[in-house]
Amino acid sequence: MLLAPYDNAGAFSGRIRVAVERMGVGEKAATNLALVVHELATNSMKYGALSCPTGTLDVSSVADAEHVCLTWLERGGPAVAAPDGPAGFGSQLVQRSLRGQLGGSIEYNWSESGLIVMLRISRTRLAGWLGFGS
Q: Do residues 130 and 26 touch, judged by C-beta distance below 8 A?
């Protein structure tokens, strides 16, 4: 699991919950997906819910025949606000990975109660490098 390094650090025990469907992820897609999750988790640890002892992170999914939609939901952290400047390198890399390699998109909701991130990923691209898609 991509978030295991964060959850296994005693302080996060039970604060990270993941409820996503099992899905085939190809080798090249796995690298891009790992990059996206790592960037979101790093930002959560620095600035978001995982930076506070009471913060939680819930990751869930909904899928159809064409797309997998992952929801990243942070609660209990510091007040959040949309960035007021240009996107940093990590955010740009996430955008490029999702649009280019994963055929998807990312949307941020800077809710008062915590950050909500919606990742939409092409199911074909996610599994395509397994040899049965493009």
A: yes
Contact 49/75 with Cβ under 8 angstroms? yes
Q: CA-to-CA distance for 10 and 24, rounded, in angstroms?
A: 30
C-alpha radius of gyration, the chain, whole number:
15
pTM of the model: 0.86
CB-CB neighbours of 5 under 10 Å = 11
SS3 of residue 96 by DSSP: helix
Q: Which residues pair with 118 in a beta bridge?
A: 71, 107
pLDDT tens string 46-88: 999 999 988 999 999 999 989 999 999 999 999 988 888 888 8
User: Is 11 buried (19+), middle (13-18) or exposed (0-12) by CB count in 10 A?
Assistant: exposed
CATH 3.40.980.10 assigned to domain 16-128? The reply is: no
